[in-house]
Specification:
Elements (H helix, E strand, L loop, with lengths): L1 H24 L3 H5 L6 H16 L14 H7 L11 E8 L6 E5 L10 E6 L4 E14 L15 E2 L76 H78 L22 E9 L2 E12 L3 E9 L2 E7 L4 E2 L2 E2 L11 E3 L6 H4 L3 H7 L7 H9 L2
Parallel strand pairs: 6-12
Antiparallel strand pairs: 1-2, 1-4, 3-4, 3-5, 6-7, 7-8, 8-9, 10-11
């Protein structure tokens, strides 16, 4: 039971500290350590604290042990009895009633003799009790009747000289029994007198006493045995009432709260799941739309490419060797080689031009690595893929080399020439300036 009460006390300390923190600082220590006040582990701890409180209710109705006397405190502090150095201890055996079992106690240095009455602690609560010394002896720790480190000390001598006898109440006659009536006297006949012949008596005859009568004493009247008073276990009764009240009044609200929390968690999980599904649906829809857009663009490019093929003009991906064999444009008017300066490197390119009168370019095709990579039409001379003016071959060199060093500064003396010769490469003259400055 001591272990049980210690566990209950520990749980009550935990609950008290936690509620103190809640009251002073609005901080739930148990909830903070175990994942919130409504978590399963926090509720288990709170339930254990409540059960510990119910288990301590019987202590309110238990008898308080008498306070220990001052000599007990003094002797308890002693590590070894006086005069018994060297590992030897002085024990005495104490008897609490005539013919009772003796119990071993350390004398604590008190001068005791057989027959002395002493006061000793008894039980877990060390209640004081008077007993008689039946033996005094000195022994080592190995021969001690009880481990010296666990043995208790004699508190003090007692002025008592004998055990108190228990008073036996007189036995009263039962109410339903009648008092015994005295028996009538029993007459005793005198012995018969023999007749003696009339002779002179030689001796005197003593007179015969009268017949005695005997009367039996009345039977003692016995008292009706009293029934022992049964003590009402108020502590256990209160604990039972508290337990019933807990299950009747406190448990249903706790169940409702737990169910509400469970439903709230289920609703939150459902909302998160729905939100996640919606996000996945939106992502899937965006992916499908992007794929459809890319597919449309691919189809548009393929359609434009096929239209250019059908119109007989150069198209992207066309071999450079077939660029002069187109039906609409025929042989190019001028070709110019040069270097393309891009972020991922420098590439050698060949640009082909087709002109109309007045040396106006009407179509441009850029080739790299033996294939057409870019085409450009002058919108003023085209209606879709239909050429509106005739192709005129200009009176200029067919091929013009812009340089082969790979450096813009070495190929061009100034950025204006770079821009004039390569207008289709740059959006404006500033971009040509930047290219020329970077070399």
């Amino acid at each position: 039971m001591q272990t049980f009460y210690k566990i209950c006390l520990l749980l009550l300390i935990v609950g008290g500290v936690n509620w103190g923190l809640v009251g002073l600082f609005q901080f739930d220590l148990v909830g903070w350590l175990l994942g919130g006040s409504t978590s399963v582990w926090s509720r288990i701890v709170f339930a254990l604290v409540g059960l510990a409180a119910l288990g301590c209710i019987p202590n309110l109705f238990s008898e308080e042990p008498e306070e220990e006397s001052e000599p007990w405190t003094d002797y308890y502090k002693k590590t070894e009895p006086v005069g018994n150095s060297g590992g030897y201890y002085q024990f005495c055996k104490v008897q609490f009633k005539d013919g009772g079992n003796p119990y071993a106690y350390l004398t604590g240095g008190l001068p005791l003799a057989v027959g002395d009455f002493v006061v000793v602690p008894v039980g877990n609560r060390n209640a004081e009790k008077t007993g008689r010394v039946t033996d005094v002896f000195v022994c080592s720790a190995q021969d001690a009747p009880y481990p010296p480190e666990k043995a208790k000390f004699v508190l003090r001598k007692s002025e008592q000289t004998a055990f108190t006898e228990k008073k036996i109440p007189p036995v009263e006659p039962a109410k339903n029994e009648k008092a015994a009536t005295p028996m009538p006297p029993v007459p005793v006949e005198p012995p018969a007198v023999q007749t003696v012949p009339d002779k002179t008596a030689l001796f005197e005859v003593e007179p015969v006493p009268e017949a005695p009568t005997f009367t039996l004493p009345p039977l003692p009247v016995r008292d009706e045995p009293k029934k022992p008073k049964r003590r009402i276990p108020w502590g256990w009764l209160a604990a039972g009432v508290a337990a019933v009240a807990f299950f009747v009044f406190a448990l249903p609200p706790l169940k409702r709260t737990a169910e509400a929390n469970r439903q709230m968690v289920i609703a939150q999980q459902a909302a998160e799941r729905e939100k996640r599904e919606q996000e996945e649906q939106r992502a899937e829809q965006a992916r499908l739309e992007e794929e459809a857009k890319q597919l449309r663009q691919q189809e548009e490019r393929e359609a434009a490419l096929q239209a250019e093929k059908d119109a007989g003009i150069p198209y992207i991906g066309m071999p450079e060797s077939s660029i002069d064999a187109t039906r609409t444009l025929g042989t190019h008017g001028m070709a110019k080689s040069g270097w393309a300066y891009k972020k991922d490197g420098t590439f050698k390119q060949m640009t082909y031009y087709w002109y109309t009168n007045k040396r106006t370019p009407i179509f441009t095709a850029v080739c790299q690595d033996g294939k057409v990579i870019e085409t450009q039409k002058n919108d003023g001379y085209w209606s879709g893929n239909t050429l509106l003016v005739p192709v005129v071959k200009p009176d200029i060199p067919t091929t013009f080399h812009s340089g082969s060093s790979g450096s813009v500064r070495e190929d061009y003396d100034n950025p204006e020439d770079l821009y004039e010769d390569n207008r289709d490469w740059y959006d404006d003259e500033d971009e040509a300036w930047d290219e020329w400055e970077n070399g």
